[in-house]
Amino acid sequence: MMTEKVSILLYDDEKAKAVRRFNDGRSPKYLIRTYGCQMNEHDSEGLAGMLEEMGYSPAENVQGTSLVLFNTCCVREHAELKAYSNVGALKKLKEENPGLIICVCGCMMQQEGAAEKLMKRFPFVDIAFGTHNSHLFPGMLYRLLLKGERVCDMAAPAQDIIENAPARRAGPPCAWVTIMYGCDNFCSYCVVPYVRGRERSRQPEDIIAEINRLVGEGYKEVTLLGQNVNSYGKDITGADFPALLRRINDETGICRIRFMTSHPKDLSDGLISAMRDCKRVCRQIHLPVQSGSSAVLARMNRHYTREDYLALVEKLRSAMPDIGLSTDIIVGFPGETEKDFEDTMDMVQKIRFDSAYTFIYSKRSGTAAENMEGQVPAGVKKERIRRLIEAQAAITYEKNLGCAGKAYEVLAEAVSRRGVSMLCGRNGAGMITNFAAPPELIGEFIEVKIIGANRYTLLGEII
Ligand code: SF4
Fold first, then answer.
1. Alpha carbon of 204 to those of 171, 209, 236: distances in Å?
2. Mean pLDDT on 130-139
3. By the number of CB atoms within 10 A of the CB, which of 54, 348, 355, 426 ranks highest?
4. Mean predicted confidence (pLDDT) in 124-142
């Protein structure tokens, strides 16, 4: 669908002010639990921003919290089951504290009938809403606080974009910036087009203005988010993703630009040139291959073959030999034979990804793959993913060891999990690096020499 300009919905600001008045100077605590991808993480930053506009402040844990919000995911069965179980676990807390407000939102709720089912199964849940109307959350909370009504609201069409809503970001120095919503691809295993709607791109000017605001707030790096960023701008005359990257590179003061996710079928020569030419665009790409078998890829409705993918990697690496390459792989898709799986293993050995997110296929209700013949037995899937994880872990470890002695510029992002005297950050290719440094250096670019590695991260020292 071509739309010259998608309609812009206003955030429910009046109701946010009304809830703030209701809170009457108190600052009740909120807690958000997020499941799933970076898009959901970033949506939660928006929901946190709204709650803070309504007078709430963040809680460390569930004890003493006035409001708990679950932002759910339905892309994988595991995340869905975990969300249900965590909502169920709050029953006792609600009995002890009937004033506790429990809300559930996100992709899982956007599935047809899911919110109603949840409200029935968990009568202690107060508010449920979907992905299309999260900007109306203040109004729902207002209804609950004022009238004591449970609210289950799935209203609002999907073809809208919300600008200028508040957000409470985790940084600086790194921020997520959504550039588009939804997906048109209908991969046969995926629910995203059903729960996030069709593709809608934000106007380039709005994205650039947001990034410049972030620069003013001290952010150094942005990750541009979309389910398939490579098809950005299809609904805006004269816009596409390579042009957007070039504009962000030239018209903002941001130091580093990353993006995800890229669908291989839409990865153009223009994008490869833009990545190569733009100094602020990091040499890193997340390019989900999903399977190394062309027959499986066809059943997945991915619109590329094994050979197409190999050729793309060749092009990327010849334009940018230092590019970091990560991927997603699904094991046990319906009809996957041992030979198909060996093709995936062969692809992994040929390409030698820097890292891979591996998943066992799980049936998703409403998708084309749900009723496909040849569902693979659970035991076979488990055995295959074990082999795949082992093979990729060995490659990642070897590649990490191969970095010893090299020097990288790393943006110090946070205190490392290894201890308070260590910081962690990523180099341009996205490799996580830990190094000894004081917390005052968070937000600085630091030259680091690699002196060691483990299976997932590098160890460096400041040069
Ligand atoms: S590109 Fe495919 S896998 Fe990715 S969100 Fe769209 S439908 Fe899902």
1. 23, 9, 9
2. 90
3. 54
4. 93
**Does residue 458 lie in a domain region?**
yes
pLDDT > 90: percent of the chain: 80
Nearest-atom index, ligand 1, CA of 193: 7
In a domain, 445, yes or no: yes
Tens digit of each residue's pLDDT (9 = 90 or more) over 36-92: 888 899 999 999 999 999 999 999 988 889 999 999 998 888 878 888 899 999 999
Q: Kind of pairing, strands 445-453 and 458-462? A: antiparallel
Give DSSP secondary structure letters for 26-78. Answer: ---EEEEEE-SSHHHHHHHHHHHHHHHHTT-EE-SSSTT-SEEEEEE--SSHH
pLDDT of residue 157: 63
In a domain, 251, yes or no: yes
Listed in sequence order, the residues at least 6 apart from 71 whose beta carbon sits closer than 8 Å to its beta carbon are 32, 33, 34, 35, 36, 40, 43, 44, 47, 105, 106
Residue located via tokens 């809300």: 103
411 falls within a domain: yes
The tens digit of pLDDT for each residue in 380-413 reads 999 999 999 999 999 999 999 999 999 999 999 9
**Domain co-membership, 147 together with 185:** no
Q: Are residues 151 and 35 in the same domain?
A: yes
The residue range of the domain holding 443 is: 407-462
Counting from 1 in the atom list of ligand 1, the atom nearest the Cα of 228 is 1
Tell me if 187 CB under 6 Å of ligand 1.
yes
Give the atom of ligand 1 at the shortest distance from the alpha carbon of 184.
6
Report whether residue 262 contacts ligand 1, using a CB cutoff of 6 Å: no
CA 208 vs CA 290, 369, 394: distances in Å: 32, 39, 40
Last residue within a domain, chosen from 401, 425, 450: 401
CA of 404 to the centre of ligand 1 (A): 36
DSSP 8-state code for residue 405:
T
Q: Are residues 269 and 247 in the same domain?
A: yes
Output the residue whose Cα is nearest ligand 1's atom 4.
227
Residue 257: CATH number of its domain: 3.80.30.20
Q: How large is the greatest C-alpha to C-alpha distance in the chain, in angstroms?
A: 65
- Where does a domain end: 160, 192, 227? 160
For ligand 1, the distance from its centroid to the CA atom of residue 117, given in whole angstroms, is: 26
